[in-house]
TrEMBL record:
Pfam families: HTH_28. InterPro entries: Homeodomain-like_sf, InsJ-like_HTH, IS150/IS1296_orfA-like, Trp_repressor/repl_initiator, WH-like_DNA-bd_sf. The keyword Protein transport does not apply. Belongs to the IS150/IS1296 orfA family. Residues 10-57 form the Insertion element IS150 protein InsJ-like helix-turn-helix domain. It comes from Heyndrickxia ginsengihumi. GO terms for molecular function: sequence-specific DNA binding. This is Insertion element IS150 protein InsJ-like helix-turn-helix domain-containing protein. Keywords: Coiled coil. The lineage of its organism: Bacteria, Bacillati, Bacillota, Bacilli, Bacillales.
Amino acid sequence: MKKRFTEKEKYVAVQLYLTGKYSYREVSEFVGVDRKSVRKWVGLYKSHGIHALSPRSSCTTYDATFKLKVLNYRTENGASYLETAIAFNLSSPYTIQRWEEKWHKGDLDVPVLKKEGRLNMSKKQKKVTENQLEAIQKELERLRMENAYLKKLNALVQSKEKSPNKTKHK
C-alpha cells in the first residue's frame, strides 16, 4: 500500500533538497519515495509555499473553465504535466493527462473557446466511404508497383555501369 506523507515529512524532504547537498535521487532514497514525488514537492513548495504540501482529499472536483485554463496553459507554454500541476497546485500530473486525453476524444465537458488567429485543431476525422477507400487502396497499389519497377530499373542501370562489357562480338 502506498504510504501517505504528512506535510512535515514532505517539508523535511524539500529542505534536504534545497540545502544543495543532496540530489532528488538521494532525497528520494532517504525518504522512501520516487524522485518525481520529491521534484513535485519541491516545485509546489517553491511556487505555493508550505500549505501546498498538506495532504489533499482525493475527491476534489474542478469546473470546466478551470480544466480548460489548465489545458490552455500547458499548450501555450509547452509545459510538462508536472510543471502544469505545480503551476496550478494540482495533486497529480496524471489528472491533467486524463483531462487532455478526454479533450482529444471529445469527452471533456468544457466549453469550446475560439481564439482569434488560431485554427480549430479538432481531432475528429472525416468518415471515408467504401468507394473512396477502394480508390485510395488502388492508388496505393499502383504507386507501390511503380516504385518497385523504378527500383529494379535503377539497379539494372547501376549494374551495367559498374561491370565492363563481358560479351564481345566477333
